[in-house]
Design brief:
single chain; alpha/beta; Rossmann fold; N-(1-d-carboxylethyl)-l-norvaline Dehydrogenase, domain 2; 2 domains; six-stranded parallel sheet; three-stranded mixed sheet; 9 strands; globular; binds NADP nicotinamide-adenine-dinucleotide phosphate
Length: 299
């Protein structure tokens, strides 16, 4: 069965490579065509448009930045909807609004008899490279059963959450926690600095206790090495928190902590720091406190 992969950014490229490694025949398309190079060298076939790719793929995966981008690549000119065959399955690995995921699923089913799964992921660029992502799925369970072998090439934990949009609600929940952890880590590092205590020792000590989490395992080491590159771009973190706050408004949920965290990431975007890693939110706290955290280690 041929698998189409549309969107070879930080996440999509590694995920497509893992699908290839698992033995599937892979078709690719990326807006910036040159970014297909590595995956094509590994054996994938590159197409000129999403429509052409969809015509030749039983399963079509998308991994794009935001809701509008997914709508454009599916329903726009030369989009997936123009080429896709009845009975194919579209799987969207992007993080987008739950309501947009529902709209896409409804439109493609009604117009093409194509099932759409929302299947956003968590685990960062490292999880994408290692094929250890957590995948949260919304949509028809029978479609999930069919594409499961492909998803298993990308991730280790694959959960069917519920109908269309439910995977994106789950991802939004995930992002509430991730943002809170990044901001808390930033506050810890600035707090230690102001108190004159060695942050590396603090992190070493607390990551074995009740504060243990993925963020403490992965991000301090990068920050101590002076590395604030993504990982996960702050502009995308900001986008995800907008999805959360939009949904909170829609359903009438009060989420004061997430509202503040959304503002901190928005501040990064306004300072031209959207391309930095989400752990670089420590920079906002450095500005607020007029202090810089520990100098990078000499490499
Ligand atoms: P990225 O590196 O910025 O890649 C974005 C991809 O989307 C690129 O292939 C880009 O094409 C394409 N794209 C964006 N807008 C487009 C449009 N209008 N038309 C066609 N292609 C378009 O982002 P990423 O980190 O891979 O993230 C992708 C998705 O995964 C996002 O929804 C993000 O929230 C989610 N996610 C990311 C992570 C992470 O750790 N990075 C973790 C979990 C989930 P070009 O190459 O032409 O720009």
């Amino acid at each position: 069965m041929s698998v189409g992969y549309v969107g070879l950014g930080l996440m999509g490229k590694s995920m497509a490579l893992n699908v290839l490694k698992a033995g599937f025949s892979v078709n690719v398309w990326n807006r910036t065509a040159s970014k297909c190079g590595e995956v094509v060298s590994a054996g994938a076939k590159q197409y000129d448009t999403p429509a052409e790719l969809a015509k030749h793929s039983r399963y079509v995966f998308t991994n794009l930045s935001d809701s509008a981008d997914v709508l454009e690549v599916i329903f726009g000119k030369d989009g997936i909807a123009e080429g896709i065959q009845e009975g194919s399955i579209v799987v969207d690995n992007s993080t987008i609004k739950p309501s947009t995921a529902q709209e896409i699923a409804k439109r493609l089913w009604e117009s093409k008899k194509v099932h759409v799964l929302d299947a956003p992921v968590s685990g960062g660029d490292i999880g994408a490279r290692n094929g250890t992502l957590t995948i949260m799925v919304g949509g028809e369970e029978s479609a999930l059963t069919e594409v499961l072998p492909v998803l298993q090439a990308m991730g280790k934990s694959i959960t069917h959450i519920g109908p269309s949009g439910a995977g994106q609600v789950c991802k939004a929940a995930n992002q509430i926690m991730v943002a809170a952890q990044m901001v808390a880590l930033g506050e810890i590092l600035v707090f230690n600095e102001k108190c004159g205590v060695d942050s590396e020792k603090v992190i070493q000590a607390i990551k074995g206790g009740a504060a243990q989490c993925w963020t403490l395992d992965v991000k301090p080491e990068r920050l101590f090495a002076g590395n604030r590159t993504p990982g996960f771009k702050s502009a995308l973190q900001s986008k995800d928190l907008s999805i959360v706050m939009d949904s909170a408004k829609e359903f009438g949920v009060a989420m004061p902590t997430t509202a503040v965290n959304a503002q901190l990431f928005q501040s990064m975007v306004q300072h031209g720091e959207g391309e930095l890693d989400n752990s670089a939110v420590v920079g906002v706290l450095e500005r607020l406190n007029n202090i810089a955290i520990k100098e990078p280690k000499k490499q």
